[in-house]
């Protein structure tokens, strides 16, 4: 996700709420720093601590999703683990943050020496509800103007460690916004430039597992709108403890719960792929296979 700044934040904790009462929320609040260079998001939204936690400023809808995972016993590896929420007050730069709720999550990059990260917004219905007609039409135009409409996903950021240069190469969301479908495989090749072929194979295997879960459970119970797949690998791994590549689904503020008896708010309801997730995953699998075959 990101590297932290050097400044340790002065925090005040006013409340903590575990998703499962028996599980205690543990965070080293004496070592929390602001994440300066995450692939997506704004400064102050993400914080990190030395004990391997990421704190994400979030809204009730995203908290509800993690509570849903806990209550339904969903613990698949492609969802970042979260024990619950804490309420914090602090000052970041000139912004005073008072009693903001932060989701406590595992730091997905903690195990990596020099993590390279790819953020892909997946699905063909990336907006949530309620939404005005004006904004809906704007979102639809954006979908058709990007690879979201044509491939079912869009690259929203890449952060790549360059061993030969000893620094990161970072591409923001504008890079992916202007890509056409034919330019996506070269972009994935660029992201995986410093990865071994087995890294691409691992990503593909994890995508297949997520696709299987989506077919068996996701499409029957959940609508993911605006969620992203995060691909992480170590571009310069530690010889002593090399970390395995990781694939995770993140960002859930617009998730729909389809088993509530409420008709999904989609313009084209499809029982087997209502949010376009499977369409996007299928195309991602083809591209990762293509890139891997070119490398082998």
From TrEMBL:
Molecular-function GO term, any one: kinase activity
Transmembrane segments: none
Pfam families: IPK
GO terms under biological process: inositol phosphate biosynthetic process
EC number(s) recorded for this UniProt protein: 2.7.-.-
GO CC entries: cytoplasm; nucleus
Keyword Glycoprotein attached: no
InterPro entries attached to this UniProt entry: IPK, IPK_sf
UniProt entry tagged with the keyword Phosphoprotein: no
Entry keywords, A to Z: Kinase, Transferase
Family per similarity comment: Belongs to the inositol phosphokinase (IPK) family.
PANTHER family registered for this protein in UniProt: INOSITOL POLYPHOSPHATE KINASE, KINASE
Name of this chain's protein: Kinase
Species this protein is from: Rhodosorus marinus
């Amino acid at each position: 996700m990101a590297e932290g700044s050097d400044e340790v934040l002065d925090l005040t904790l006013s409340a903590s709420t575990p998703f499962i009462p028996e599980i205690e929320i543990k965070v080293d609040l004496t070592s929390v720093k602001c994440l300066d260079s995450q692939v997506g998001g704004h400064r102050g939204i993400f914080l990190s601590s030395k004990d391997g936690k990421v704190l994400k400023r979030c809204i009730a809808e995203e908290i509800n999703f993690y509570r849903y995972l806990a209550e339904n016993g969903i613990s698949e590896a492609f969802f970042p683990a979260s024990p619950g929420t804490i309420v914090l007050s602090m000052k970041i730069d000139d912004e005073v943050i008072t009693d903001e709720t932060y989701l406590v999550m595992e730091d997905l990059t903690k195990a990596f020496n020099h993590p390279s990260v790819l953020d892909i917004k997946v699905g063909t219905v990336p907006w949530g509800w309620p939404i005005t007609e004006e904004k809906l039409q704007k979102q639809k135009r954006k979908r058709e103007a990007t690879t979201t409409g044509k491939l079912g996903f869009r690259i929203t950021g890449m952060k790549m460690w360059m061993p030969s240069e000893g620094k990161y190469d970072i591409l923001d969301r504008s890079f992916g916004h202007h890509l056409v479908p034919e330019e996506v495989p070269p972009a994935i090749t660029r992201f995986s430039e410093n990865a071994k072929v087995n890294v691409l194979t691992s990503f593909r295997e994890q995508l297949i597992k997520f696709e299987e879960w989506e077919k068996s459970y996701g499409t029957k119970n959940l609508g993911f709108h605006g969620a992203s797949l995060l691909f992480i690998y170590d571009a310069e791994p530690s010889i002593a403890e090399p970390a395995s590549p990781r694939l995770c689904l993140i960002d859930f503020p617009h998730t729909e719960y389809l088993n509530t008896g409420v008709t999904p708010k989609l313009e084209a309801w499809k029982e087997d792929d209502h949010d376009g997730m499977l369409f996007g995953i299928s195309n991602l699998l083809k591209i990762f296979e293509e890139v891997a075959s070119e490398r082998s």
